């Protein structure tokens, strides 16, 4: 107990789960909550892990629920479904502009590099000049202690590094394949895996 176990099975070269890494659903993961998803990890500790799905926009716009944040939202300006846990809870991730440190900006909590969690109770006009964009998520994906390691061991998730723009991307449909293709071989081959193997 105590130390986080870094298991590399089923993962990209040199990748381990950490804040700022991505979990890419393996082609065989058929759970409807997570099929073909890409999850950005916000927290990974002994007691559990938390992240948000980057490629599931909802029908709800940010203007509908958080109008003061809508002008800062990256396109599409939908609220994204972050996962099946606490769907009424809003989380917000942002990428700060080059030259700004999120740890020094009131209203931001640094995650990794230029990516930060946004305190939605703060004043958007004070944070806006420092941001390249942001994304609002309803709910999140969470794992209890040891649960995520078990799913990675089983081959459900491929762990790869994130790029800051992954958080802001509008390519909800193509993100899964795009992230796999940029890993190089052999992971890039998974991007061509058919949605339904019976069609192959």
Notes on the structure:
This protein has one domain: VC0467-like (3-Layer(aba) Sandwich). Helix content is 11%, strand content 34%. The chain has helices at 62-65, 124-127, 147-153, 175-181, and strands at residues 21-25, 38-45, 48-53, 57-61, 78-81, 85-96, 108-112, 115-118, 131-144, 157-161. Strands 1, 2, 3, 4, 5, 6, 7, 8, 9 and 10 form a ten-stranded mixed sheet that branches. A hairpin with a 2-residue loop joins strand 2 and strand 3. The protein is globular, with a radius of gyration of 17 Å. It starts with 20 loop residues before the first strand and ends in a 19-residue tail after the last helix. Mean pLDDT is 87; it is low at 1-14.
Tags for this model:
200 residues, mainly beta, VC0467-like, 10-stranded mixed beta sheet, disordered N terminus
Write the layout of secondary structure elements.
Layout: E1 21-25, E2 38-45, E3 48-53, E4 57-61, H1 62-65, E5 78-81, E6 85-96, E7 108-112, E8 115-118, H2 124-127, E9 131-144, H3 147-153, E10 157-161, H4 175-181
Parallel strand pairs: 5-9
Antiparallel strand pairs: 1-2, 1-10, 2-3, 3-9, 4-5, 6-8, 6-9, 7-8
| DSSP, total strands | 10
Determine the CATH topology: VC0467-like
Distance between the termini: 45 Å
Radius of gyration: 17 Å
How would you summarize what this structure contains?
By secondary structure, this protein is mainly beta. It has helices at residues 62-65, 124-127, 147-153, 175-181; strands at 21-25, 38-45, 48-53, 57-61, 78-81, 85-96, 108-112, 115-118, 131-144, 157-161.
């Amino acid at each position: 107990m105590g130390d986080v176990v870094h298991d590399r099975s089923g993962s990209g070269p040199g990748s381990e789960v950490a804040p700022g890494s991505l979990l890419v659903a393996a082609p065989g993961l058929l759970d409807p909550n997570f099929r073909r998803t890409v999850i950005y990890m916000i927290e990974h500790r002994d007691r559990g892990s938390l992240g948000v799905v980057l490629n599931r926009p909802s029908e709800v716009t940010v203007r509908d629920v958080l109008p003061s944040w809508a002008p800062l939202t990256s396109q599409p300006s939908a609220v994204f479904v972050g996962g099946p846990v606490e769907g009424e809870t809003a989380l917000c991730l942002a990428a700060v502009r080059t030259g700004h440190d999120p740890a020094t900006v009131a209203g931001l909590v640094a995650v990794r590099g230029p990516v930060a969690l946004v305190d939605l109770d703060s004043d958007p006009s004070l944070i806006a000049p420092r941001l390249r964009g942001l994304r609002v998520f309803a709910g999140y994906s969470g794992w209890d202690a040891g649960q995520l390691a078990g799913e990675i061991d089983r081959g459900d998730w491929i762990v790869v590094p994130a790029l800051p723009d992954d958080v802001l991307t509008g390519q909800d449909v193509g993100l899964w394949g795009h992230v796999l293709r940029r890993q190089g071989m052999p992971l890039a081959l998974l991007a061509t895996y058919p949605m339904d193997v019976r069609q192959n």
